[in-house]
Amino acid sequence: VCQKYGHLQKDISKWRGRRKFDRVVCQGVVPYLDDESAESALENLAAMSRGFFYFEAITKRDLDEVCDTSKTDTRVHRRTGDWYRKRLYRHFREIGAGLYYRKDGPLEFFELEVPKSR
User: Fold this and answer.
1) In terms of C-beta density within 10 A (0-12 exposed, 13-18 middle, 19 or more buried), how is residue 38 classed?
2) How far apart are CA 60 and CA 66, in angstroms?
């Protein structure tokens, strides 16, 4: 797929591109990485983002309470949502529905567009 569409195939826990992007998407990748690699991956993704970051990761709660485990790949690291949020909040503010925005980004949001400040 990478070759067909001209994408790079890299280990996001070790690779950090030089460019920054307005929109970065990371869906279903980080839960497969061990804790150290997952932290590195989130740091690398944050470093390449200058705006919006969409992040999707299955959590321990999702596996325990939401997912149909007969249809879900459960071979992931069972981290809590708080584990991810602690690392994401270093660089981003949460917008909702898996969308984050750089804390130092140029956009401002109306009060009801973002979750209540913690």
Assistant:
1) buried
2) 10
**8 Å CB contact between 75 and 57:** no
The span from the CA of 79 to the CA of 86, in Å, is 12
Q: Is 60 left (phi over 0), alpha (psi -120 to 50) or beta?
A: alpha
Is the four-CA dihedral 25, 23, 20, 81 of positive or negative sign?
negative
Q: How confident is the model at residue 116 (pLDDT cuts 50, 70, 90)?
A: confident
Q: How far apart are CA 58 and CA 4, in angstroms?
A: 28
CA 40 from centroid of its chain's CA atoms: 12
Backbone phi, psi, residue 27, to 5° = -125, 115
Q: Return the amino acid letter for 113.
A: E
Residue 30 has phi, psi (to 5 degrees) of -65, -35
Amino acid at site 88: L
Model pTM score: 0.92
* pLDDT at position 8 over 70: yes
